[in-house]
């Protein structure tokens, strides 16, 4: 099958050729002719299958005739995350380079003024995350009654992220006569209900869920203690044991751990930055760009933030936590070993995560072998064990407060070694840091001898027993 046989216009075909695609992927082969005919499509496919081009290519052709009116977009693509929205916008630029369609990206974290200006000029394609789009609708800056094509992408992720009420609200504003393209990697009952409500007589196109990992990926397992600091130590040992790391993505199951881990890695001298949904949009974009361009070596990410991101050529993937959904493991591991290249995937597992591990091994039908980290892991353990006792005793408070899951009030629950410099830094006032010690006399209050109350210098009269009257 060739792209030409799918019925795309010469301008779009030229763009496809320039993108270097030789033949359509299965989802493209099934979806494109149906979208071109104006049919509703229910696509069951995940990222990495080429589904973005599956809907953007025929949309470009369908929108090539007609003009957009101010504030009334002609098509709308809803994405669950800002990164995915930005990525679809990039695809539009690539595939639509020979067509003069206008496009606007409405995502949180970007100034309203700039987005308003674009909307005022009229857009053919509006790519948005649900929350920001509704903000614009409520401010009267965008009207959806001119939308002819609606794409709801990654519907199951929308469900996970609690966006379904927003989606329903948005759909109510769009005319019934629209064409709807609905994509989801899975079809749980809630998503089935939505697709029944939103789609009219859809064609169902489906590509088999990926359940295998590439043969070129060497996957290993590393057992670890369950305490967060133990897992961080294990991760560092793995990283140090690898002398061929070009770059790596480190996946955590929770957003909170993404931040903690990125900070801890940085403190230990690794170039790492976090990527998750609570970060400022500009920071997320900048982090992603520096990782893609090779300026940042380690990206610490949550599944949602990393889902669908097209980052070619990652040498290593690390699972800081075993993913609770076995499919996520396949997704994560799919970041490495692409296009026949060799890739490495390390999974850190605690005893409590054994059940998830088993589910992964059942899905992939492959056993993950234990890694042999050689002397590196041992060295780190030894270094800890041989640490002079005095040094440890000097910070009894931090040691007591150190690693406990529950005590996460402070953002980082770190090892004593990780925690100490930060605590002392935060206590020290700026003026203290700037004040030089007077000659021959150190500043009275240093961080190491913080005095609480009267400290050791309790006046003698206070120590005398109180006489009973
Ligand atoms: P997607 O699943 O849409 O996120 O696409 C995943 C990756 O596949 C992107 O890097 C696309 O550029 C690439 N891609 C999409 N369609 C094709 C194709 N027909 N041939 C080769 N690569 C493709």
Which helices and strands appear, and what pairs or packs with what?
Blueprint: H1 10-19, H2 26-36, E1 41-44, H3 51-63, E2 75-78, H4 82-95, E3 103-106, H5 112-121, E4 125-128, H6 130-138, E5 149-152, H7 155-160, H8 164-172, E6 179-184, H9 189-198, E7 203-206, E8 217-223, H10 228-241, E9 248-252, H11 255-267, E10 272-275, H12 281-292, E11 298-302, H13 303-306, E12 316-319, H14 326-333, E13 343-349, H15 354-364, E14 369-370, H16 375-385, H17 389-393, H18 396-401, H19 416-427, H20 430-434, H21 460-463
Parallel strand pairs: 1-6, 1-7, 2-4, 2-5, 3-4, 5-6, 8-13, 8-14, 9-11, 9-12, 10-11, 12-13
The chain binds adenosine monophosphate.
Question: Summary?
Answer:
The chain is an alpha/beta fold. Helix content is 42%, strand content 14%.
Report the sheet with the most strands, covering strand number, pairing sense and barrel closure.
7 strands, parallel
Q: Could you name the CATH topology of the largest domain?
A: Rossmann fold
Structural class: alpha/beta
Bound molecules: adenosine monophosphate
- Name the CATH homologous superfamily of the largest domain: P-loop containing nucleotide triphosphate hydrolases
Percent in helix = 40-55%
Query: Any idea what the radius of gyration is?
Result: 28 Å
Measured distance between first and last alpha carbons = 105 Å
> What CATH architecture of the largest domain would you give?
3-Layer(aba) Sandwich
Strand order of the largest sheet: 3-4-2-5-6-1-7
Mean of residue pLDDT values: 81
What's the level 1 CATH class of the largest domain? Answer: Alpha Beta
Shape: globular
Continuous helix count: 21
Low-confidence stretches: 375-458
Q: What share of residues are in beta strands? A: 5-15%
- The total domain count is 2
Number of strands: 14
